[in-house]
Amino acid sequence: MSAETIESPATAHPVKVSRGTLADGREILFFDDSQPYLSGEKTREIKDERPLGPRELPPYEAAAVRVDPLTGDSVALAAHRMNRTFLPPADEDPLAPAGVGTVPSEIPEADYDVVVFENRFPSLQGPLEILRDEPLFKETTPGGRCEVVSFTPNRQGSFAELGFKRARTVIEAWTHRTRELSAREGIRQVFPFENRGEEIGVTLHHPHGQIYAYPYLPPYTAAVATRAKEWATSGAGDDLLGDVLAAELEAGERIVRETEHWVAYVPFAAKWPVELMVMPRRAARDFTELTDAEKDDLTHLYLDLLGRLDRFFDEVDRLPYISAWHQAPVSGGENISRMYLHVFSLLRSPGKLKYLAGSESAMAAWVSDTTPERIAARFRQIAPTPRPEGGLS
């Protein structure tokens, strides 16, 4: 095991990072903001004694990335994920601290603050190699990496209840992983995200997120990159994302909240029943380019917005959502000037979901069940009740 320390003098938010290896060779990192670890009074042992064999790449037939010859979109094949963990009972929580449940945890320590480790059932892993390179059929190994981020040792709760200190530590974890994963050979984009709620398709109730390091540009990012390049060469403007932000600020009607460094708004062509974006005023391309002040500001704003999500519908205590951190690509998206957060929910009213049926699923021709202006007005109406600063431990 090795350890390193991240310091944030401007915010007095130091985080100690301890790095270790799980029984099957996967990497695990502990991000500690608790004083015993910061002072060196306690150290991480990280001894995983589970009888796990060395991890091997799945066979070619079970894992690959193929390119759709009609659209050019990359599609990951991950047949080895069919038997992955699915909604285990509370006493079999794989993200609980070691010794808490009835089965060995993925996290071999009796306590922790925030943990990141390689996914046991990844859709992307290993080096990138060409398997097939024909005019219509192109295929590679599933190069890349998938990681799990456990926000808290508590099985109950959510990111909105972490409190400022722990949420700020998660942002430091995202920053650390963005820096390291972006430096890996063949990585095109690093994508932290969170799925919350069974309606979304989560397989673990424990508050957690994931990070995908893609060896290709995902279709959405590729489309934004193409649009940004066209905008920059059209003569209408030179920074698509910055110009969109300026236009939203000028229009004003879809703005949810402004802070010194960030703007939260409902996008002009919102697709989902509940949806918002958060964009930095300054052109910071990813978490590694944010200042301490911007991270602090983002932490407060993000917790505020997540609180509003949970009050969007009067009869819904915990809104199911996807929270997606779109960072600028490592390569191939030079005209994407800045990162942004996109949060959305498929719940259109209490007990009713927006299903992506024929038009949306088959043709990607979206039909919205509301208007962006109504969504923004509702967000502005429901500023959340202040939460205790301490939050979940």
Automatic annotation (TrEMBL):
Source organism, top-level taxon: Bacteria
InterPro entries reported for this sequence: GalP_UDPtransf1 (IPR001937), GalP_UDPtransf1_His-AS (IPR019779), GalP_Utransf_C (IPR005850), GalP_Utransf_N (IPR005849), HIT-like_sf (IPR036265)
EC number: 2.7.7.12
Reaction(s) this enzyme catalyzes, per UniProt: alpha-D-galactose 1-phosphate + UDP-alpha-D-glucose = alpha-D-glucose 1-phosphate + UDP-alpha-D-galactose
Gene Ontology cellular component terms for the protein in this record: cytoplasm
Cofactor(s) listed: Zn(2+)
Residue ranges annotated for the Galactose-1-phosphate uridyl transferase C-terminal domain, each copy included: 234-382
Residues of the active site: 208
Pfam families the UniProt entry points to: GalP_UDP_tr_C, GalP_UDP_transf
Domain Galactose-1-phosphate uridyl transferase N-terminal as annotated: residue spans: 64-218
Swiss-Prot/TrEMBL keywords: Carbohydrate metabolism, Galactose metabolism, Metal-binding, Nucleotidyltransferase, Transferase, Zinc
Functional pathway: Carbohydrate metabolism; galactose metabolism
Annotated GO MF terms: UDP-glucose:hexose-1-phosphate uridylyltransferase activity; zinc ion binding
First-level EC class: transferase
GO BP terms: galactose catabolic process via UDP-galactose, Leloir pathway
This protein's record includes keyword Zinc: yes
Record bears the keyword Nucleotidyltransferase: yes
Family under the similarity heading: Belongs to the galactose-1-phosphate uridylyltransferase type 1 family.
Protein name: Galactose-1-phosphate uridylyltransferase
Species the sequence originates in: Rothia aerolata
Lineage of the species this protein comes from: Bacteria, Bacillati, Actinomycetota, Actinomycetes, Micrococcales
